[in-house]
Amino acid sequence: MDRNILKNYARYIAFKGINVKKGQRVIIRTAPEQLDFVEMLVEQCYIAGASKVSLEWRFDPALRLDIAYQDIDELSSLDIWEIERWKEKSLQLPANIYLDSDDPDALTGIDTDKWAKAQQKRFSITKEYRDKMENRYQWCVAAVPGLKWAKKVFPGISDGEAIEKLWEAIIRCSRADVDPMLQWAEHNADIHTKCDRLNSLGLRTLKYKSVSTGTDLSVGLMPQMRFMGGSELLADGVTEFNANIPSEEIFTTPMRGEADGIVYATRPLCYRGVMIDGFYLRFEKGRVVECHADRNEDALKTMLAMDEGASMLGECALVPYSSPIRESGILFYNTLFDENASCHLALGDGYSSCLEDFQNYTPEQARALGVNESMIHEDFMIGSDDLEIVGITEDGREIRIFTDGEWDKEL
Question: What is the rounded CA–CA span in Å between residue 281 and residue 388?
Fold first, then answer.
């Protein structure tokens, strides 16, 4: 991949993805692959004004061994220095970059029950610091190729060719091939215009229907909710950042407890290194009451049982079937990309930032209004070429939002 293109990609992540403030600290979480790009990104963060850039390493093969060999108490614990690091983050509010290059099958075959219990315990320790940080720091998820990921997406070719093809796909779908600063400025403006239109409608319910898949679902919306997409603002009302690169979605947080019907996934879900495929979920009064998966159903059920809110919805996202990511013809086996190829829903935690005047609400107040709470937030794709979405307003009017998988022409 051309180094100038990669440099521009790194520059966009630093300057607009997280939008580093002068004197702010930055943490980059990454796997030990694509070190040349990590070096570029570190430099761009410093050029943008970072006072200190730290790296946190993630290595799935070692994590797999940890899960296999550590006892549950050890696997569940946080050392004193780890807790102190969370405290420091909650005070300093560093900007966070997550470089995704994970093997989609990295944790297939692990003891999912053991790993789930460990995650539950660790989350209970860090939750107070997460709550203090909510809506107060910039974060950005972007991608770089990992070899096993590249070979999964492009099998049957050499390692080098697979890496290069995945780089090309990432850069193209991330709108970073030609002048990413300009491309993203135009893209964000288009998304914000669509959000303004949706927010003017006063929607209180979304009804999803697809004959081809069998989806027939109704989801309630909060009176205080708003649709968002593209760049967003922190609670300070000033700091703008792009949380996901790429991003084609317009999303909101639904009303906890108001989802009824059945929905079928149209793409696989990679849940923490385990691929779940061919699944459906049936909702009653907001909660999943029945599920099935052709592949890794146990992992799906474990995910739904992670906590009280894991079997409820935390996000409704609208993505046209003509999304450039779907039109690439590539199944990425990666939620960052695949969710932007299709309308999707998310199980688990909702976004309090989707409330109007969200900066005026504490996390507890946001939950009281109907924002779901959970330790997970897992997107799954439901889009199809015949998906219809109808919005119901507070006064009972029906407004067509999607027709045949696309934005209705009236929007």
Answer: 18
How far is Cα 385 from Cα 251, in angstroms, rounded to an integer? 19
Band of pLDDT at residue 12, cut at 50, 70 and 90: very high
pLDDT value of residue 411: 79
Residue with structure tokens 């560093």? 94
Burial class from Cβ neighbours inside 10 Å (0-12, 13-18, 19+) for residue 400 reads: middle
Residue 246, preceding peptide bond in cis (omega within 30° of 0): yes
Whole-angstrom distance, CA of residue 149 vs CA of residue 275 = 12
Pull the structure tokens for residue 206: 């979304």
Do β-strands 95-100 and 139-143 pair in parallel, antiparallel, or remain unpaired? parallel
SS3 at position 408:
coil
Q: What is the largest CA-CA distance in the chain?
A: 59
Spatial separation of the C-alpha atoms in residues 5 and 121, rounded to whole Å: 42
Cβ–Cβ under 8 Å, residues 378 and 288: no
Query: How far from 231 is each of 18, 68, 115, CA to CA, in Å?
Result: 10, 40, 34
Q: What is the mean pLDDT of residues 159-167?
A: 97
Place of tokens 């040349």: 36
Q: What is the pLDDT of residue 273?
A: 82
- How do residues 193-236 score in pLDDT, each as one tens digit? 999 999 999 999 999 999 999 999 999 999 999 999 999 999 99
